[in-house]
Write a structure and sequence with these properties.
The structure is a homodimer of 457-residue chains. The first copy, chain A, is an alpha+beta fold and 457 residues long. Chain A has 2 domains: 284 residues, Aminopeptidase (3-Layer(aba) Sandwich); 123 residues, Alpha-Beta Plaits (2-Layer Sandwich), CATH 3.30.70. The first copy, chain A, contains 13 helices and 19 strands. A 6-stranded mixed β-sheet of chain A has the order 1-2-6-3-7-18, sandwiched between helices. A 4-stranded antiparallel β-sheet of chain A has the order 12-14-10-15. In chain A, a hairpin with a 6-residue loop joins strand 1 and strand 2. In chain A, helix 2 packs across helix 4. The longest helix of chain A is centred in the N-terminal third of the chain and has 22 residues. Strand 12 of chain A pairs antiparallel with strand 11 of chain B, so a sheet runs across the interface. Chains A, B: Keywords: Hydrolase, Metal-binding, Protease. Chains A, B: GO terms for molecular function: metal ion binding; peptidase activity. Chains A, B: InterPro entries: Cyt/Met_Dipeptidase, Peptidase_M20, Peptidase_M20_dimer. Chains A, B: This is Acetylornithine deacetylase/Succinyl-diaminopimelate desuccinylase. Chains A, B: Pfam families: M20_dimer, Peptidase_M20.
Chain lengths: 457, 457
């Protein structure tokens, strides 16, 4: 233990000396726009990243996909050691609305201890942290105690549309013991966190077509079909009034939480008042356990939009000709969006109504969950604790959706996410930023994780 | 009989000469928007109507109400003769959605033998027909054989909210033997009709407020309330999946149809194919008796609009902060809208949901029904037959709503409706129209009715 503390001090000293370089490296990356949704600068950014990774001593190449390329790198140990696969993305969100930025989104600007710029938090700052950590360790030791691989994609902000087939086609190259992602914000100010999965997503739209035009609700009332009512009648066959989904086999594949997971959830920090305020509710009455079960371990059946007929001021007495509802379901591990979609399709086909109902598939992502008790997972959690000198909050899954299933489902390896960005990083929004302290801590955390997995710390 | 045929020919000849003027009169009225729900142009339209009625030789004045004024006119016979009270409304529905109109809704446009424009059918074309008929008869004879009175309101499309108190306060002025309304479409192509009542109306809006802002459906899914789902859950307690209303006492006051009425209904013409086409449905499977029972003698529970969250293209992953639904119920005689509203209020107050639900009363009109066997009713039916040279279809009640209860309930006189507009007038919808032939026939029918009630034809 004493020896490992000495190693840790050595690493801190080294990183301290390279602060300027670490800042400048991120600045360089931010100055190169890479907006996948707008096809702006993405390939140039891939080239820049390759150069920076090669400069760091990483064996790097560009690998094609059907869309923007993957930047792949590796530093392999001569012996057959443990392998960590670092995942990140070098594309960024569009910067619009530009008028809300306090500085140029592509000219990194320091203000109040934070670096502002598009991509600082999501995901360039967190991605380059891994690269710079490896560079520093190679400088310090001449080698790494484990194998590291880097998978940096250029289409995450477009929904990682080509990631799954790429991974299918490169299983051997990407073989690893764990996937490690730094993305998203930490759980609170100075509160490190580790998440072991994500909910999946199935997004559908149901449309009901009644008569081919709106009809007078008096002259045709009780005669023309009402598509809004038909959709409501369909929805009442899909979900009961307690929110329980009635689609065949919907709950079949959901992992039952282990006693250990439930015990763990009960220990998680939960401030109902602060949470209610963030959401915009008057109050929140549920206990921590129920909160985390609902958010991390249970699926949703959410109406994201419902539109039919006249919704302006006052009255309009019509029978609308059509109605549509958008429903997004967050899926708990191991629900399968394709299977559920098929069952919904069947359900809708068996539903009788005067209106003609159509079902559209608007998107699907599988959920992902990695068991908490795995040794390698516990090791990373410990490394985060060492680097921050504070116990991280460990969440079984994020409420939101990410592409982590590509690791757990396709590569069949554990996957975890260690956010390096501050809680107010404003990703996807104007004035995106990363705290300088958080950014530098991120580099240190990757160093500690590599050394701890390599049993050097 | 021969003499009356000569009179009829005289009238036809006179009307034939004035076609151009009759068209131009309607055009003038259409060009003046009068959208009571949007407070647009209503007073200007009242002024225009007064001028046109005075020009027609009618003693006309504006009478105030708590809302938009009544335009009242009269042509009284020196002797104490029978009095007909013509009712109509000079306000129109909002023209939206504008993009579906093939021509400017407020610039009357002739196409395929029809005049297109907001209000052509509902109700400016049918209202001005009475005025122009009286003008022609006065031109022709210098006087009328009976008393006529005109009651034209400006708030029918808002539910005639100030009509009942107005009539309460002007019982003497409005005293008459029968109320005569031309509104709504005829029963079929070239098929005149007379209706002896109307369904009533109760129009409500339910709003559900969840969090004070939209939330991310992943990070907050299952935690923030979903107001759209809460409204759907409320609606499922208000109406079952067969359309039967579950509000307390909803069906209690409905008149049981007499054997005579049911026998009459069975003789009514019904062309399911043509009806389906008018409505814009592929087919219609119900028999005549059921059709008329549903349309004339039964209430509705219609969703006129439902709005919540994102309804544009593609996906947006939000939990909406609010939802609203507009529901209009057509009421069968003798349902009471006020009583039903009270019961809905109680129902909503007893409904539990995470969202805050509010109920707004947007309008209510009592239903009305006049017995078919009355002499004066039979006389008007005969006048319609003479004008069209065809037996009219006589309906016990219209599916739609008019304020006819003010005549039957407050003035205690029989009330009937003789629609002048074509069956495909598309009232309340884009491309509202009135057939030129139907419009001119309408003017003729008012002439014949006045002469027949005055025993001149």
């Amino acid at each position: 233990m004493k020896e490992s503390m000495i190693e840790f001090m050595k690493v801190r000293e080294k990183l301290d000396k390279e602060k300027e370089f670490h800042m400048e490296s991120l600045f360089k990356l931010i100055r190169q726009p890479s907006i996948s949704a707008q096809n702006r600068g993405v390939l140039e950014c891939a080239d820049l990243l390759v150069t920076m990774m090669k400069d760091a001593g990483i064996d790097t190449k560009i690998l094609d996909t059907e869309g923007y390329p993957v930047v792949y790198g590796e530093v392999l140990h001569p012996d057959n050691k443990l392998t960590v696969l670092f995942y990140g993305h070098y594309d960024v969100q569009p910067p619009e609305p530009l008028e809300l930025w306090k500085s140029d989104p592509f000219e990194p600007t320091i203000h109040d201890g934070k670096i502002y710029g598009r991509g600082t938090g999501d995901n360039k700052g967190q991605l380059i942290a891994h690269v710079l950590a490896v560079k520093s360790l190679l400088d310090l030791y001449g080698k790494l105690p484990i194998n590291v691989k880097f998978l940096f994609e250029g289409e995450e902000e477009k929904g990682s549309i080509n990631l799954a087939p790429f991974i299918e086609n490169h299983k051997e190259l990407l073989a690893a013991d764990i996937a490690y992602t730094a993305d998203g914000p930490m759980e609170g100010k100075d509160q490190p966190s580790v998440t072991l999965g994500n909910r999946g997503l199935l997004y559908i739209e149901l449309k009901a077509q009644g008569a081919i035009k709106d009809n007078h609700s008096g002259n045709k009332g009780n005669i023309a079909p009402n598509p809004a009512m038909d959709l409501i009648n369909l929805i009442r066959t899909m979900v009961d009034d307690k929110g329980r989904v009635l689609i065949k086999d919907f709950y079949n594949d959901i992992l039952t939480p282990t006693e250990e997971e439930l015990n763990h959830i009960r220990t998680l920090p939960f401030d109902p008042e602060a949470t209610a305020q963030v959401i915009g509710m008057h109050k929140m009455d549920i206990p921590a356990e129920e909160y985390y079960k609902k958010l991390c371990l249970s699926p949703t059946f959410n109406i994201a939009g419902f539109g039919s007929g006249y919704t302006g001021e006052g009255t309009k007495t019509i029978i609308p000709s059509e109605a549509k509802v958008k429903i997004d379901m967050r899926l708990a591990a191991d629900q399968d969006p394709d299977l559920i979609f098929q069952n919904i399709l069947e359900h809708v086909e068996h539903f009788n109504s005067a209106s003609t109902i159509t079902l559209d598939y608007l998107g699907g992502v599988k959920p992902s969950r990695t068991p908490m008790h795995l040794d390698i997972v516990q090791k990373v959690i410990r490394a985060v604790e060492i680097s921050h000198n504070k116990l991280p909050v460990v969440l079984p899954a994020l409420g939101g959706t990410g592409p982590m299933y590509v690791f757990t489902d396709i590569l069949k390896i554990p996957s975890l996410t260690v956010p390096y960005a501050n809680v107010d990083e404003d990703n996807h929004a104007p004035n995106e930023n990363i705290g300088i302290k958080e950014y530098l801590n991120g580099i240190q955390t990757t160093c500690v994780a590599i050394l701890h997995l390599g049993e050097q710390i």
